[in-house]
Amino acid sequence: MVQNMVMMQGISHFFKGFVLVKVPFALTNGFKQMFQRGLDLQTLETSYVSSVSWYFLVMYGLRAFFRLVIGDVPQETQESMQLQHSFGMLLNAPAGPQKFEAEKALRNEADAMEIARYYSTIDEAEKRLLGKR
Question: Domains of the chain: which residue ranges?
């Protein structure tokens, strides 16, 4: 995460004002501020993207791909997820200790289960088409 912030600051410093990409579709003026960060041109079409904005879009757009290629999530992310999970467990914990009873839960699910009969309109298509022949 820190390396991404440093890289973005470096690109912002060295490539400020550069138009890098033109997207092949038209965008509304609401996207102008997001796609043209660092460009101070009022007359530039919205479909042109600055270098900093392109870096930002690519980094966040390819996050899942990088996770597949690189592998595990960083240690700091795992620790924060564990901390959030433990806080959630503390807030939602019942007053006394309870043990999970699998047999009881399975029995409750079996009692609540209903069997649905399968019926299709195709099953009686011949009878409806040919009648009582």
Answer: 2-73
